[in-house]
Amino acid sequence: MAELSLVSGSVGLITLQSPPVNALSAAVRRGIVDTMQRAVSDPKVRSVVICGQNGVFCGGADIREFGSTMTGPPLVPMIHAIEAADKPVVAAIEGSALGGGLELALGCHYRISHAKARLGLPEVTLGLLPAAGGSQRLPRLIGVPAALDLITTGRHVTAAEALKLGFVDQVTDQNTVEAAVQFALSVVGQSLESRRISSLPCPCPVDVDALFEGVMQRVRQSARGAIAPVACVQAVRAAATLPYAQGMQREQELMATLFTSGQARALQYCFFSQRAVSRWSMPSGARWDTCKPKPVTKAAVIGLGTMGRGITVALAQAGLSVVAVETQPQQLKAGQRAVSDMLERAAQRLGVPSAVQGVRYSQELQAVADAHLVIEAVFEDMALKEQLFKQLSSICKPDTLLCTNTSALDIDHLASQTHRPQQVVGMHFFAPAHVMKLLEVVYGPRSAPQAVATAMALGKRMGKVSVAVGNCRGFVGNRMLMPYVEEALFLLEEGATPETVDHALEEFGFPMGVFRMSDLSGLDVGWRVRKAAGLVEPGKMSRVRQGRRYSPLGDLLCEQGRFGQKTGQGWYLYETPGSREARPDPWLHSFLEEYRARQGLVSRRIDSQEVQERCLYALINEGFNILQESIAAGPEDIDMIYVFGYGWPRHRGGPMFYASQVGLPRVLQRLEHYQQLHPDVPHLQPSSLLWRLVSSGSPPIHRWREVIRKPHSAL
Ligand SMILES: CCCCCCCC/C=C\C=C\CC(=O)SCCNC(=O)CCNC(=O)[C@H](O)C(C)(C)COP(=O)(O)OP(=O)(O)OC[C@H]1O[C@@H](n2cnc3c(N)ncnc32)[C@H](O)[C@@H]1OP(=O)(O)O
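Above are the sequence and the L434P2JQ SMILES. Below is the predicted complex in structure-token form.
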């Protein structure tokens, strides 16, 4: 898995060979140890170049090995042996040098990088730290502040930035291996003392304590309970304050804690799940690998409200030619200005040409006639959308894909308004659509697999994590959100305040609790949906609607014009309409007390555990129903929707992974407990899939699909 050849008469070329990213598996590590020993002892070899096959240097340690007992030579002594070699060793970096891959390069005496390569220490994103000496070598080479930035964020940098920071010696846009070989020939015989990074002192900032205290405070705040960023700071501190050998010892101790933590398991599950969801399947048996997407170069967006603007930007930035249609002249003008501004700003930030020229604007629906794909983003009103789909069906070419950005309306019903129901899918973006990574691609019973493949491919082109899901009310994300929000409202009725509920959810790791989130997105949004569902009875306080428990609290606030941040009042109070800082609202507290008194409800103290269990287990329970109904193909799909679209803390792996970590019997038992206390709440009734999983011995999450597919009679 690593090959040694002699090139240019005296350079030993070691090539890592482990597709697709030359990860440092046991076999690769064995290969490196073996080829290095041979190169060092071969008198014909005067210098060494290490490169990776197929244009990738190395994607780091083999993450798949982390779940099992590690075998093969360990990384740390392997890298020490490279650094200690008495012949110059040059890393030839193409494609990626990430994690252990960059640590390997830091053990080499020189680093030559291709201009297009990306380098970084992303271990923190996997719940780890750079524990093959990376946390000790990088600060010695580029200084503490820059190393802290790279190690605690895990961000990948370009070769140009790596050169500027000082951890790459030369950048080339020619053949990197040839450049590295020439370089290796030129440094033969030069002293290697100053090239062994571990022997260098760490440039220590003047007030080291103040620096690390400040950084630690910032990191803890943004980590939302994740432990790896904190350990990364501790490891870099060891580099700045201890001799190298002791720093390495600290690095290993910290890694040992992280390595076996549930957070590392969750983050590594997310890494693989993010890639797995692109391998979609439908209940019909259609799959990603048997279905080719249609090429899309011309797209149209209808409606230039907030969503339409973001979608237009995302499409234009992906290189498509876009026509944006808005029938209201004022809205068209405002939309055009907003889209152009967003495109210009992004181009400036990224240093790329602006995509402004790729967008045309029109007031006429006819302008979409030659598009390959149309996405409607008009007001969330079924009658309006029905009318639009009828028109699109006659305006567009027969093979044009017709997509809706609806967040909850019935895709199948919209498809039935057209002469081509097989060409209709949902493309549910999340606001702001050009920023948020998640895209739910929603298929109805009549959607053609090729339509799904095309929407999924387009999502990938826009840089989205696209998840294919079936059609149902709210699809996956919003459907699971309904019981979560309802439980939060019930908790208010029983004695909690918005502050106590939000605090418990933020403590869990959400960036915002349910009530702060509701204030941000606007209480009127849900009110409209509930009105359309016939649930709202103005002025009425009844707590049973359509045969089940209901809380009218949200409706009562909306009736008072309290729509959240935009009106300056919602579940919280804001300084002025539009301002963001939520303050507890004494009016709301007395309103809740009065409400409870009028309903005859006795207020009780509710702790964080109850808030978390009731909100999260209700949401998770709906996830099991979704799996049971094959609306989502597997738990990874649900988890990626929640991580990328709903702020679920990544270090907890997504709701279904979290349930598997808590233990399915425990989740079942707590749901049963709450259901006994609240028998009128259907979403606390444990899902039959949860029962089946528990009675099948609670298999690990990667084996749930076997139980899902098994007929009830086989259990
Ligand atoms: C008791 C304590 C003991 C502790 C002992 C441990 C000591 C360990 C010492 C050091 C540890 C170092 C830690 C690391 O190095 S962790 C790994 C850090 N590296 C990364 O995070 C990079 C991850 N990969 C990527 O970012 C991308 O894959 C990239 C390399 C940029 C290529 O991107 P792209 O071209 O878009 O391709 P894909 O992402 O789709 O990947 C293609 C398939 O390759 C799989 N893959 C990628 N990287 C790895 C890897 N490092 N290990 C295993 N597999 C990897 C990826 O999953 C794709 O396959 P699939 O689609 O089947 O999932």
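The first strand starts at residue 2 and ends at 7.
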